[in-house]
Amino acid sequence: MLRISQIKLSIDEPTEQLLGLVCKKLQIKESEVKAFRIYKESIDARKSNMIYFIYTVDVSVEMEDKILDKGLKNVSKTPELAYTHVKKGSQPLKHRPVVIGFGPAGMFAALILAQNGYAPIVFERGEQVEARVASIEAFWSKGILNPKSNVQFGEGGAGTFSDGKLTSRVRDLRGRKVLEELVQAGAPEDILYKAHPHVGTDLLRGIVKNIRKEILRLGGDIYFDTQVTGFRIEDGKLKGLTLDTMGEISCEQAILAIGHSARDTFLELFQSGVSLSQKPFSVGLRVEHPQTLVNQAQYKKFAESARLGSAEYRLTHQAKNGRGVYTFCMCPGGLVVPSASEDGMLVTNGMSEHARDQENANSALLVQVFPEDFEGNHPLEGIEFQRKLEQKAFELGGGSYKAPAQLIKDYLEHRPSTQLGKEKPSYALVVHLTE
Ligand SMILES: Cc1cc2nc3c(=O)[nH]c(=O)nc-3n(C[C@H](O)[C@H](O)[C@H](O)COP(=O)(O)OP(=O)(O)OC[C@H]3O[C@@H](n4cnc5c(N)ncnc54)[C@H](O)[C@@H]3O)c2cc1C
Asked: Domains along the chain?
């Protein structure tokens, strides 16, 4: 195929015009095109008087080499996109491989193992998605937290109740494989070419279920409500795992896909002799504002165009003290959701449905923290740092998972807010004002 990049359509021009533009560029007739697909679509909103869609497309035509010989600008051969599975090992395994955790990492590890005939066994501490929805509903509506199955833990991991942004800052063919598997499992096809692909929590719930079914069909087994609570390591090698539901099993190959929040498992690993070290991360809060404000700032007079959808933003700043401050995980038309996994701790995150049609937009406003900020040298000291902040936020909210809130103007002027503005916060549990 041939790849043609930098094809521009104004917001008023329909995508049906793309083929004609491509043929004009290649100096061929439309009837000569055997196959055509959009590879990438991005929005250029830098000019206030016009917004453009910028496309990269792939076409299959007769005599591609002859066209390449013309040396046309922005025309090249389409690179090989197919994912190739890693080479199989030569030694038979003593036991079936285990995947611990069924979030995005665990799901794809299990899927690839299953596709290669390894029949993996998956252990996931949280519930299957259907039951998990009920546990999360109870938390969001009544503040009843299930520490084993919540926004962080359960089928699909922290990815299920998320915005489903599929942003990757890494150029890697495996990214394409992930997108293709998600489409196969029911995600919209446009995630294959949108510059900022997004699925939405409503669709993700069905998608994770379909991936589970595919792993089972290929011979894998998945145990939900089953937590790995111990690791038997002998001479530096894994020999067994302890499960809270079925005691010890023999295991020599396990993929740890336990995510960010399994603090008890990190401790268990440390106590089993696994080497862990401190690392920098970021902490912050969620800012929320009307989506119309973001649309107007980004798209100006085109703010109401249905073709553009809800606008996004990303801000970065280098503070005088050397710390990076930035927005992250911006959720257009989304909700701020209670996301704790431990009792008495307050954690928030952002989530949206596929349509991104809620009134507010929100994003995380974060600042970098470094091991020097922690109180000690223990490898898990960063977790204690997080816990202290989460506990303070819980107390400030008055307990019961209400989130302390402040107007951004008051926050910047270092004073508590005494009342909210006219915008209604989306956080499900009643917001407690900081006094
Ligand atoms: C509300 C929300 C919105 C988000 N939005 C986005 C977004 O739009 N885009 C994006 O890229 N990222 C988003 N994220 C972050 C994203 O979800 C995570 O980066 C991603 O889920 C990490 O994948 P993972 O598989 O490594 O870990 P996780 O998703 O954390 O999965 C780990 C799994 O392991 C299980 N587990 C842990 N310990 C054990 C044990 N001992 N035994 C058995 N099972 C165990 C857990 O129950 C969990 O299900 C969001 C997160 C949240 C909470």
From this structure: 2-77 (3.30.70.2700), 98-271 (3.50.50.60), 281-433 (no CATH)
